Amino acid sequence: MKIVMVTDDPTGDPPVPIESVVSGAEVVVADSTARLDLRDDLLSPDFSADCCIVVLPLLITAPPDALMTGYILARSRHCVAVGRGRLPPFVPAMRHFTVAKDAIPWLQAQCNLEKKRARARDDKRRILTAGYGLSKEGLFQAIGGSDDAVVESFLSIGLSPNLCDRDGIPILHIAIRNRHVGIAMRILAAGADPNLKATDRANSPLAEAAASRSPELVAALVEAGAEIDTLTADGQSALMIAVGEGDVDTAKILINAGASTAPTDKLGMTAIKYARLFGNTTLIKLVEGSGG
């Protein structure tokens, strides 16, 4: 980050402790003498600065000094005046100019904003370099291609973690169905609704995770607030699905989270009946002993 400090302090030391806020910043202190000495550099067509801090009071009398100061301000992305004193007459008209009591909070906010913008640029570059478009269709393709880093970039630039495809299937469900656990975890961490159902099967993310035999994802959904006993279109709970899959680990997680064994699906089956049907003694003991 390049910062130019316009000041009348002849010591050459930055009157604002920039290094304490912006690590590694390139700081140019332009006092009344330096503004003229640096004329060639400052008037270069290539000159630009991320930020200009004007330290008041500032006395500008000579026309060359006014020219140099105005040019610095004009070629800086952000400008702020701190201290007490009158602003040069041409300064307030500049749109990107701010007056602040203290440069440090303002500079911190600008620094955070610049970091956010830089990350957005990096994310968009990563998406395009990977061959995807900057659209929701590109996100669907990245999920299908199991491209974790690119999916994270899509979410970072603002695409909703609750986005659905044209068939009404949320991207969280798409990731789970494709057994892309890492991507599903990223989508969930980005704020996906843990109870949003897909329109095709009326399945919750928890039901999808149980069907994919993913205890890790089931645990994460439970932690995120997933409704334990929500039912699919066939009347099955996540616990019933886990039992049907013979997934002891997932069944334990659900039972420990308070899953009920009472729901009955459209076939008249319960979790206990499915455990007995498949003859899984471990699941039979687990479900029967849950007391749910």
Structure report:
The protein has 292 residues and is of the alpha/beta class. It has a domain at 2-115: Response regulator (Rossmann fold, 3-Layer(aba) Sandwich). Helix content is 45%, strand content 10%. The chain contains 14 helices and five strands. The chain has helices at 34-37, 39-42, 63-74, 103-129, 136-144, 148-156, 171-177, 181-189, 205-211, 215-223, 238-245, 248-256, 271-278, 281-288, and strands at 2-6, 26-30, 49-56, 76-83, 97-99. The chain has a five-stranded parallel β-sheet with strand order 2-1-3-4-5, sandwiched between helices. The longest helix is centred in the middle third of the chain and has 27 residues, at 103-129.
How would the blueprint of this fold be written?
Elements: E1 2-6, E2 26-30, H1 34-37, H2 39-42, E3 49-56, H3 63-74, E4 76-83, E5 97-99, H4 103-129, H5 136-144, H6 148-156, H7 171-177, H8 181-189, H9 205-211, H10 215-223, H11 238-245, H12 248-256, H13 271-278, H14 281-288
Parallel strand pairs: 1-2, 1-3, 3-4, 4-5
Helix pairs in contact: 4-6, 5-6, 6-8, 7-8, 8-10, 9-10, 9-11, 10-12, 11-12, 11-13, 12-14, 13-14
Mean pLDDT: 85
Going by CATH, the architecture of the domain at 2-115 would be 3-Layer(aba) Sandwich
CATH topology of the domain at 2-115: Rossmann fold
Sheet-strand content, in percent, reads: 5-15%
CATH class category label of the domain at 2-115: Alpha Beta
Inertia-based shape: elongated
Largest sheet report: 5 strands, parallel
Query: Which structural class should the secondary elements be placed in?
Result: alpha/beta
Number of strands: 5
User: Gyration radius, to the nearest Å?
Assistant: 30 Å
Element-level helix/strand string: EEHHEHEEHHHHHHHHHHH
Uncertain segments? none
Helical coverage, percent range: 40-55%
Spatial order of the strands forming the largest sheet: 2-1-3-4-5
Termini gap: 60 Å
CATH superfamily of the domain at 2-115: Response regulator
Count of runs of 4 or more consecutive helical residues: 14
